Structure formats: structure tokens, C-alpha cells
Amino acid sequence: MKKEIAVIGLGRFGGSIVHELDAMDVDVLVIDKDENRVNEYQDYSAEGIIGDSTDEAMLKNIGIDNYDNVIVAIGDNIQASILTTLILKDLGVKKVTAKAQTSHHGRVLEKIGADLVIHPERDMGRRVAHRLVSSSVVEYLEVNHNHSIIEFSASKKFESKRILDLELREKYGISIIAIKRDHDIIVSPDPDAKIIEGDILILIGTDRQLGIFEDRMEKLK
Ligand code: ATP
């Protein structure tokens, strides 16, 4: 099913969203004040508009309110990012996703009604930090400012151990949500279930607790 999405700002971040959406066969409207950028994405978008997104009349004229999802991928120009987000919400766009450059920028975006605020640089930095501490962390997802979910690859050391034996809650204060095994997912696994080498354990906890666990597991390797 085709979904209509608009991306405002074709820097590296906005541009990669457009490429990915195009690969997923989603129709994308792209908007940028820089003509060269709009031309660059001609082959990957359904429509391109050269214009300033802080121009409310322009956004209204192109019928931006018909789009369910609009992504504001303007980063450096914080004023333009905030004003664009405000206008989009005023015009009734259902879901506005905005990229924040700093935590203050993010807080302002939330206050003015952005439905989703993303911090790509900060999140990528955190992801890299978790992977640096433990090579077994294959994925990282932020839940809130101090809680995360990690995907942890179980090494040989875990083979045949019961979940219960790991004492995740007692020792680290973290919980196991699910286990990915081959192409299956075992949700809320039984504490008596045995782990197999190569299982991906999906764990939730505070960043600090997860960090202690990751560090400990790395040292046990
Ligand atoms: P990235 O970090 O994603 O690479 P960048 O640093 O290249 O971004 P930004 O300043 O974040 O650049 O801007 C991203 C894009 O947004 C640029 O192509 C810029 O022309 C566009 N842009 C900035 N302000 C506006 C605006 N008011 N209206 C439309 N497009 C804008």
C-alpha cells in the first residue's frame, strides 16, 4: 500500500530517508529551498518543490495538510526547523516527525507539538558506545532518556544455561523481554527455558544497568 509522506530538508539525513522510502515503494514529496538538492532527488521522489518551508502560504498551496506524515529534516537552521514544525501542526498535519540538533531544540519541538522528535547524532553515538563496550550488543534502542533495549548475542558461555541461572534481575536489575532464535521470536520466555549459543536476548533496563551487564559479560568472554 502506498503511503504519502513529505520530507522537508534534503541534507544527509533527509536524503537517506528519501532513498529508503523510495526503495520501499513509498511516494515521497520532497521540499528544499535549494534547487540543486531537489533536482538531486528527482528520481527518488514523486514530486519536488523548491521553496522555503517557513512560508506558510507555500505549504498551504501545495496541500501539505493532505500528507499524513511530514518529516522536518532541517538541522542546522534551528529557527527554520521550529517554525516549519509549528506551521505544519497549525495546518493540521497528523504526524510531524522532526529532527533535533540539540536537547534544547528537541524540547522546543516537543512543546510546539511535534509528534515524534528524533536525535540521530545522539542516538547513533549511544549505539556506538554500547557496541564499543560489548561486541555482543547487536542492536540498541532508546526507550526514554535513561532506559534502553539492547539485543545481546549469547555466546558459547550461555549454552544450556537457564534464563533463571543468569540472575539478570537480581544481579543487574535488567529483564529479558524476548529471545530471537533463528527466525522465531519467543516472547516473555519461561525462566526455565534454556539458552542456545547464537540466541539474541532482548533486554531492557536503565543505561547504567545495561552498561554494567555488558561490561561484565565482555570480561567473562
Ligand atoms: P544533514 O546533517 O542532514 O546533512 P545539513 O547539515 O546538510 O543536514 P541542514 O542545515 O540540516 O543541512 O539542512 C538540511 C537541508 O534543509 C538543506 O538541504 C537545506 O537547504 C534545507 N533547508 C534548510 N532550511 C530550509 C527551509 N527553511 N526551507 C526548506 N529547506 C530548508
UniProtKB/TrEMBL annotation:
User: What residue stretches are annotated with the RCK N-terminal domain?
Assistant: 2-118
Q: Which Gene3D superfamilies match?
A: NAD(P)-binding Rossmann-like Domain, Regulator of K+ conductance, C-terminal domain
Q: Do you know which PROSITE patterns this protein is assigned to? A: RCK_C, RCK_N
Indicate the transmembrane segments per the record: none
Q: Which GO terms describe its molecular function?
A: monoatomic cation transmembrane transporter activity
Gene Ontology annotations of biological process type: potassium ion transport
Q: Which Pfam families match?
A: TrkA_C, TrkA_N
RCK C-terminal domain ranges (all copies): 136-219
Its protein name is: Ktr system potassium uptake protein A
Recorded name of the encoding gene: ktrA_1
